[in-house]
Amino acid sequence: MKLIAGTALALTLSTTSVLAAGDGTCAAGKTLTDGTLTIATGNPAYYPWVMNDAPESGEGFEAAVAYAIADKMGFSQDNVTWVRTSFDEAIQPGAKNFDFNMQQYSITPEREEMVDFSLPYYTSAMAVLTTQNVVDGGAEATLDSLKGLKWGGVATTTAIPMLKDIIQPTDEPLLYNDNADVNAAIMAGQIDAAIYDLPTALYLSAVVVEGGTLLGQFPPEQSESPDQFGLLMEQGNPLKECVDAAITELTESGELAAIEAQWLSEATGVPVIK
Hints:
- This protein folds into two domains: 10-124 and 226-263, D-Maltodextrin-Binding Protein, domain 2; 126-218, Periplasmic binding protein-like II (D-Maltodextrin-Binding Protein, domain 2, 3-Layer(aba) Sandwich).
- It is 34% helix and 19% strand.
- It has helices spanning 15-23, 61-72, 87-91, 109-112, 132-136, 143-147, 159-167, 179-188, 198-208, 240-253, 255-263, and strands spanning 37-41, 80-84, 100-101, 115-124, 126-131, 152-154, 174-176, 194-197, 212-218, 227-234.
- The chain has a three-stranded parallel sheet with strand order 2-1-3, covered by helices on one side. The protein has a three-stranded antiparallel sheet with strand order 8-5-9.
- Residues 1-20 have low confidence and may be disordered.
């Protein structure tokens, strides 16, 4: 997993710190409720991040990662409580009703001014979601061919800066309030395409967007600033060191990669955009 700049030092956490995360002493007295780890997700939470909108099952990539982190911090599954928040409300500064939140939050400098993030637990390729009508109309998976498409996206996501910096479309992208509006715009023909992380794009093309298909993908290593997801926490949360130690241990042991392989297996047949 490729890590953001500045995290290499964090990965040199001492053995004592990592062990403290595992035996539960690191988190003692630092959670909202003593002896309980409160984790937030979306309402609803979507496949493949959470299966069947049931994070307590531990099924789906983020649900599985959450329980693996909890275990490393000394919390059994019975000592984990789930709450729901909207995506935007959790980013706002101030007190939180969770210890950490997992909703595919990209780590950005702007957000770090309001909240804290853990080390990244996932580095995502970005993919272009469109419809078969656009593909049949001659669109190809090249940067030049993408410039002339009508684009849309959610104003507050990292897809818009990536769209403007990498694709540089001829026309300004249309901005929407949420992903549901973007998907509806694609199906209505108001826009030709939008950018999502690859797992989400695969799901939307198969289940949500009628006639949906993926035009291509930008692998993380081909992006100047790969989209990396971190656990979101209240700024100054003392639990951060424990969470980072748990993620470090999961990364070094290969457990995190195994969870990613199980729930986010490599997509085949999606061309690379060059």
